[in-house]
Each structure stands twice: as C-alpha cells, then as structure tokens.
Amino acid sequence: MTITTRLVLDILKPHRPNALDFVRQILLRNDIHRVRLNLAEMDEKTETVLLHLEGTDIDYEDLVETIARMGGVVHSIDEVEVREAADARSEAD
C-alpha cells in the first residue's frame, strides 16, 4: 500500500476566498499538516497559485473536492511524493 505525503498543485482560483482563508480551509483537513501557497499570476477575476502540501496520507480526490468547493480548479500536479505505508509508519516511530 502507498501513501501520498507531498504534493505541489497548480491551481486556478477566484480572488475570494483570499489566499489566507483558502489555505486555512485546506489545513483543516486531517490528512494535511503543512500548506504553503505561492501566487504565480493574477488577473481581474482569478489567481493562479502553486500549492505546496505535506501530510500523512493525502486523499487527492477529496482535496480536489475541497478546492472546488472554494471555486478553484486543479490545472496540474507539478510534484508528488508517494511512499510505502510501512516506510511512513517506521519513520513515525
């Protein structure tokens, strides 16, 4: 079994929620413990952001739904780190 521990996503989002509220909503998820957002581009209605996520076992499909509920769309997965579940457990011990 594998687990996803790190993702970098290219996301298109509206100006609202702002970056701080957007990141806070994502951080409320139990499987994510660190989030960093970098603004890449901005126009009148949208922002393109790079979202750097670290977690214990990130549920990608649920994450995409969380982003969609805030009006965002994932354009691409730019970076991913996946581990064997046993490796992750031994690091936690």
UniProtKB/TrEMBL annotation:
Please report the name of this protein according to its UniProt entry: DUF211 domain-containing protein
Native species of this protein?
A: Methylomarinovum caldicuralii
